[in-house]
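One thing: can you check what follows?
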Amino acid sequence: MESYEWVSIKLWRDNWCEQESIMEMLLLDDQDVPNMDAPVSDFNASDKEWKYTLINSLMSNDLFKLLKSIHIPCRDTEDSFCWALSGSGFFITKSATWQAHNISLDS
């Protein structure tokens, strides 16, 4: 795997910045997205900054603000996924398991 350039995480399809994918957040279909398989790395520059102009041209202002708040680490490390806290704000194994199996926490 390449160094930390977010090459294995798909920008539109993977749940990498919230509980659902960007496609789901924006209610997009496959035909609405120019490159479905674009990795997150296509949207950050070699200086570890987001390509703000590109992102802003493709996404809503709220989503742009969300992505802008995600800092790109300055050290190289492999891609990885993590999950959010439970609805109560605490980590529990149950919420991690449900997230891994794509089960709603509201169920």
